């Protein structure tokens, strides 16, 4: 998969996806035609979106917001006092501390790894810089629970805080590395040359000129990592480190009183929403455009001198623990397994089930995302903005909370759906709607609006324009979004665990069960199958982008 | 006939000066009109309102008596029968050339559609290109196909939005001539929006100069160049020499630092004003020629087909520009005489 991804990346989720968090569409990134009549992209605010788009878009938005609303209702069901007792419980505060502590450690480690690797691979004369850069993005393809499994299988004593922090760091540092590397490539080297000619040495230049410009990218990446860690379920539960997600799962499984689980979920959602808001703020203030026209020359790579060997060792070390080790460990356990431990029927069944639910999830998500994405790309104004933001709600919702909300909802209002496939597919749609909406929006934005104008002047009504011009042009991007959604659905763990129909196992749930029971050799085939299956669409996506 | 009438059109984007401030424009049926103006003058806004992509605040637009925009009327673009040729063509990249051209041909049977498509391709000189994809065409070819696409449904009006802007200058003249021929052949009324005065003068039947949201002058290219309504227009549509002048001889001539100049139009009661004359109306002459004023050459700018000689003359703060065809007889610092030929205009 290519390191630089034109499609806006999905939010971090219970599983990884290989996209670049630095390329998220800024909320103000839309054409500013309203105040610039002479601009190439002009105001469309005056034109209302056709009803046939608005209605399904509203359905999608309502769909995305439903779990959030229902969660709040459920948490307060037995009175705010009861919910408050759960939230203010000593154990909740302890969980809060553990969650935040883990997040802080992982974010700090990811910043160190991500920024150092980005700088080494983009700006220095490191031998094989490009290859190291590509290797540093590979961990994105490893779900956190697979990483946890490989470490746990090799070093069982690592379970707990250390193991959780290690596994999460090694899978999420590319979220920092990718945007920082992109930002480094975007900085005009002439600025650094100017600083040098004004009497600053290389180190002072880096600290005073380069680093401040990397801050928005690094902060954006760090917040994605934080969001990822907070909502992660697989790695922490396998490492038996209690955080919010694991406590919610345990509480849900252990008791028939579901208010505590709901109340804990609300706290978790509040934390993630606060993080998303903080991220939006840093993005809003990031005004680091290049001043002046002209194209930037590529920077002259900085010679490393006697730092060459240590730099190489650092890159090799990170690659070894983040890429080589998981693969090696997986290979070892695959080889250690015998045909007796390999449950081929189970493997085939799980693989088949995984493909089925992921395809259904991707299909529904893409369908719901289409109207929202088109409106977000082509229409401005309050309504359009609100619709888009509602669809992005899944961005802030950890998988476990969405699953809980849907369980509650189904038990109360749609019992026939409880523990049935449609509910799981709905959970995927809520969780990954942002992935598909972002892809659709980007794809539609790439189709020049002038083509739609021309089509209308040639006698086409708006809906036919959509069908004959906009959709065919956006199709490759939308398909890429669908493939990406397919991959993330396949890797999703917490919602799948809670919502899967009785007796159905996906690769992820089987991997989780086997690892939890300590049967590493039995778990390994599922991990390998998952990585292989996820690699196919990822590979196709990479080809599509290049 | 499909004459275009635009009356008292206004449009503003939020607070600040309106982009269109009561613009009036009439284009006779079958004519090619150029809307010429500096960037930001509102010409593109005008085009988008006529096409139906933008709503005017007030005003009316009619084509052949049919109201497109008016009080309570806002025809959607697809019902206007107004074709558009956008900048850089904007061909549908996912459709072949033939399907691009046939895009607007709805309600015809297949054979008829095919015939019309081929006819249009032939009209723009690209017969046999139907199976290509847009990216396989050069910029000029894409522009011609965009025109064929716009003309295929026989629109009553065609709008061209700086259509030659993206083409390099060598290609431009050829494409421009072909577009003119094609438009003539179909008899559609056409409006060409441009900021390039050469393009406007050379391709249009009438040119409307737009300034600050209004039509400052609308005339044939020759009249516009010869009789500009004010010095700004004179300078915008070509090189102009501005001279202070005093009216004499009963309004037939004006006295200027270059001597008496014949006025093309009566000065309208003005006694003094600015006389506008074109550099090619000035001639270099021997210093002792009877009707010549003496001056010193300050600068010479050579263009190949001609040259611009700047001459400092007594009574003028700035040197006057003289366009000289053929071989250059003179260099900076030399003395020369300057003589005026033809007629000039006088403005307040």
TrEMBL record, chain B:
InterPro entries: AAA+_ATPase, ABC_SmlMolc_Importer, ABC_transporter-like_ATP-bd, ABC_transporter-like_CS, ABC_transpr_FbpC, Mo/tungstate-bd_C_term_dom, P-loop_NTPase, Transp-assoc_OB_typ2. One of its GO terms (cellular component) is ATP-binding cassette (ABC) transporter complex. GO terms for molecular function: ABC-type ferric iron transporter activity; ABC-type quaternary ammonium compound transporting activity; ATP binding; ATP hydrolysis activity. PROSITE patterns: ABC_TRANSPORTER_1, ABC_TRANSPORTER_2. Its EC number is 7.6.2.9. Keywords: ATP-binding, Cell inner membrane, Cell membrane, Ion transport, Iron, Iron transport, Membrane, Nucleotide-binding, Translocase, Transport. It is an enzyme of class 7 (translocase). It comes from the Bacteria. Residues 4-237 form the ABC transporter domain. This is ABC-type quaternary amine transporter. It comes from Streptomyces dysideae.
């Amino acid at each position: 998969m290519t390191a630089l991804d034109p499609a806006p990346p999905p939010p971090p989720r219970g599983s990884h996806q290989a996209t670049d968090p630095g390329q998220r569409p800024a909320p103000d990134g839309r054409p500013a035609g309203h105040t610039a009549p002479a601009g190439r992209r002009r105001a469309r605010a005056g034109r209302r979106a056709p009803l046939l788009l608005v209605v399904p878009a509203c359905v999608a938005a309502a769909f995305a917001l439903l779990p959030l609303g229902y969660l709040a209702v459920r948490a307060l069901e037995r009175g705010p006092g009861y919910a408050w007792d759960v939230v203010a419980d000593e154990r909740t505060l302890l969980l809060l501390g553990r969650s935040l502590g883990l997040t802080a450690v992982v974010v700090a480690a990811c910043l160190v790894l991500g920024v150092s690797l980005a700088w080494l691979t983009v700006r220095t004369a490191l031998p094989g810089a490009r290859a190291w850069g590509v290797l540093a993005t590979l961990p994105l393809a490893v779900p956190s629970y697979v990483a946890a499994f490989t470490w746990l299988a090799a070093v069982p004593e690592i379970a707990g805080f250390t193991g959780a922090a290690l596994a999460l760091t090694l899978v999420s540092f590319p979220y920092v590395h990718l945007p920082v590397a992109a930002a480094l490539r975007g900085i005009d080297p002439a600025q650094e040359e100017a600083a040098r000619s004004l009497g600053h040495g290389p180190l002072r230049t880096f600290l005073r000129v380069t680093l401040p410009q990397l801050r928005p990218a690094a902060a954006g990446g760090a917040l994605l990592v934080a969001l990822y860690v907070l909502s992660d379920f697989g790695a922490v539960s396998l490492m038996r480190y209690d955080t919010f997600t694991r406590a919610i799962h345990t509480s849900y499984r252990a008791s028939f009183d579901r208010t505590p689980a709901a109340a804990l979920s609300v706290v978790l959602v509040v934390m993630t929403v606060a993080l998303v808001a903080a991220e939006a703020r840093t993005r809003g203030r990031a005004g680091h455009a290049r001043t002046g026209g002209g194209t930037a020359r590529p920077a002259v790579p900085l010679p490393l001198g006697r730092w060459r060997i240590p730099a190489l060792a650092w890159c090799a070390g990170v690659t070894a623990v983040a890429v080589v080790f998981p693969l090696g460990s997986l290979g070892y356990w695959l080889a250690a397994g015998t045909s007796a431990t390999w449950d081929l029927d189970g493997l085939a069944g799980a693989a088949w089930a995984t493909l089925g639910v992921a395809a259904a999830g991707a299909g529904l998500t893409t369908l719901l995302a289409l109207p929202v994405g088109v409106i977000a790309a082509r229409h401005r104004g309050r309504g359009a903005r609100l619709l888009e933001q509602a669809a992005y709600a899944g961005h802030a919702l950890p998988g476990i909370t969405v699953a809980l909300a849907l369980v509650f909802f189904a038990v109360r209002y749609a019992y026939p759906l409880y523990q049935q496939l449609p509910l799981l597919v709905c959970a995927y749609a809520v969780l990954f709607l942002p992935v598909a909406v972002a892809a659709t929006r980007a794809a539609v934005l790439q189709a020049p609006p002038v083509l739609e104008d021309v089509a209308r002047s040639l006698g086409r009504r708006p809906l036919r324009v959509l069908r004959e011009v906009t959709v065919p042009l956006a199709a490759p991007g939308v398909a890429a979004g669908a493939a990406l959604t397919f991959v993330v659905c396949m890797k999703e763990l917490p919602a799948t665990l809670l919502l899967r129909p009785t007796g159905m196992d996906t690769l992820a749930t089987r991997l989780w069960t086997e690892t939890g029971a300590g049967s590493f050799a039995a778990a390994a085939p599922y991990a390998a199958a998952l990585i292989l299956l996820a690699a196919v669409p990822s590979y196709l996506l990479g080809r599509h982008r290049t | 006939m499909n004459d275009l009438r635009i009356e008292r059109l206004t449009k503003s984007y939020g607070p600040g000066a309106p982009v269109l401030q009561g613009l009036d424009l009439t284009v006779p049926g079958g004519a090619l009109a150029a809307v010429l103006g500096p960037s930001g003058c509102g010409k593109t806004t005008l085009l988008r309102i006529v096409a139906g992509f933008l709503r005017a605040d007030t005003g009316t637009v009619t084509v052949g008596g049919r109201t497109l925009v008016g009080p309570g009327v806002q025809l959607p673009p697809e019902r206007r029968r107004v074709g558009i040729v956008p900048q850089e063509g904007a061909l549908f990249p996912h459709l072949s050339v033939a399907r691009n051209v046939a895009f607007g041909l709805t309600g015809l049977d297949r054979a008829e559609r095919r015939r019309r498509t081929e006819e249009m391709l032939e009209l723009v000189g690209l017969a046999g290109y139907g199976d290509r994809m847009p990216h396989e065409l050069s910029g000029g070819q894409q522009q011609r196909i965009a025109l064929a696409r716009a003309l295929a449904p026989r629109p009553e009006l065609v709008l061209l939005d700086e259509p030659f802007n993206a083409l390099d200058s060598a290609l431009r003249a050829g494409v421009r001539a072909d577009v003119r021929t094609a438009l003539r052949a179909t008899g559609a009324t056409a409006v060409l929006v441009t900021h390039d005065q050469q393009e406007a003068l050379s391709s249009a039947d009438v040119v409307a100069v737009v300034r600050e949201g209004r039509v400052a002058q609308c005339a044939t290219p020759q009249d516009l160049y010869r009789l500009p309504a004010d010095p700004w227009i004179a300078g915008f549509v070509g090189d102009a020499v501005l001279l202070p002048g005093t009216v004499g001889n009963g309004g037939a001539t004006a006295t200027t630092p270059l001597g008496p100049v014949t006025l093309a139009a009566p000065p309208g009661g003005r006694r003094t004003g600015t006389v506008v004359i074109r550099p090619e109306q000035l001639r270099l002459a021997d210093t002792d020629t009877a009707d010549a004023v003496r001056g010193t050459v300050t600068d010479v700018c050579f263009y190949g087909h001609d040259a611009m000689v700047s001459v400092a003359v007594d009574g003028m703060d700035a040197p006057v520009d003289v366009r000289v065809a053929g071989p250059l007889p003179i260099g900076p610092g030399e003395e020369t005489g300057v003589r005026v030929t033809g007629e000039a205009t006088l403005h307040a």
